[in-house]
Design goal:
The chain is mainly α. About 75% of the residues lie in helices and about 0% in strands. The protein has a single domain, classed as MetI-like (MetI-like fold). Helix 3 packs parallel to helix 6 and helix 8 packs antiparallel against helix 11.
């Protein structure tokens, strides 16, 4: 077999494997769209559930997901970016920093249910925050920290070392170099990690199950210390706990949650592509 034939065979095998991975995902998305598109309307998106959740919409759950996503951003991303800057720019390569990076990678792989149980013990019970938006946001923020730290650190390390050398040689301090040279060039990767972290937080059920999510609330939350409904838990409830639930409402809720997560991913992709085109290196 010639080299060209080997390359061609490798391309075919890789393409088939990629198709086997992508095709089921596409089929699932199309199936959810087909079964749920009929339920989508303005009333469904903004009204509250009625008649034991068998009628009405998902307005409170959708708004609760927005609250939790925003709270997650406030709780985790400043700390995550600061940690990434320290690890990439200030920390020396030592056994301690290697252990810290290993711990971050391991934390990123911990099942979300473990974070939910930790949030229950640490925030709901120990800190006496109760089942509330702030407890859920802190739990989700803790869950997204490792992913955002790793992504932001990789983005910072990808900036060429020459940028730092030239800036320091011209008399800039290390922080001025990081702020004006490193961070602007690493921003596409950092923003991508942040938005993908938000997408994961918006779609999680287990962490909010113990810390914030309510089966049904007749009123919207008035403060960060109140419970709230959320789309992932609401979908679980209407799919498993409500007898006689119309399938169209179940798939409609799943479709909205899917669109929220896919929209965040799409925004991350567009921002990353746009900002990378503007880079000069």
């Amino acid at each position: 077999m010639t080299r060209q034939q080997s390359n061609r065979l490798a391309e075919i095998v890789i393409s088939l494997v990629a198709a086997l991975v992508v095709l089921p995902i596409v089929l699932v998305i199309l199936y959810v769209i087909y079964n749920g598109i009929g339920a989508i309307s303005w009333e469904f998106l903004f009204s509250a559930p009625r008649n034991g959740m068998r009628e009405g919409g998902i307005g409170p759950a959708l708004l609760g997901t927005v609250f939790l996503t925003f709270g997650t951003a406030l709780a985790s991303f400043p700390l995550a970016i600061a940690t990434a800057i320290y690890l990439a720019e200030y920390a020396r390569d030592s056994r301690l920093t290697r252990w810290v990076r290993l711990a971050i990678v391991n934390l990123a792989g911990i099942p979300s249910i473990v974070y939910g149980l930790f949030g229950l013990g640490a925030f709901v019970l120990f800190m006496n925050l109760g089942t509330s938006i702030i407890a859920g946001s802190l739990t989700l923020g803790l869950m997204t920290l490792p992913v955002v730290i790793s992504t932001a650190e990789e983005a910072l390390l990808a900036v060429p070392q020459e940028f730092r050398t030239v800036s320091l040689s011209l008399g800039a301090t290390r922080w001025q170099t990081i702020r004006h040279q490193v961070l602007p060039h690493a921003l596409p990767g950092i923003i991508t990690g942040i938005i993908l972290g938000l997408g994961r937080a918006a779609g999680e059920t287990a962490p909010i199950l113990f810390t914030v999510a309510a089966f049904y609330l007749p009123e919207l939350p008035h403060s960060i210390f109140d419970q709230t409904m959320a789309l992932p838990y609401h979908l679980y409830v209407i799919a498993t706990q409500v007898p006689g639930m119309p399938l169209s409402l179940q798939y409609g809720t799943a479709l909205v949650l899917l669109l929220v997560v896919l929209s965040l991913t799409l925004v991350a992709t567009i921002l990353r592509t746009t900002m990378r085109r503007r880079r000069q290196w």
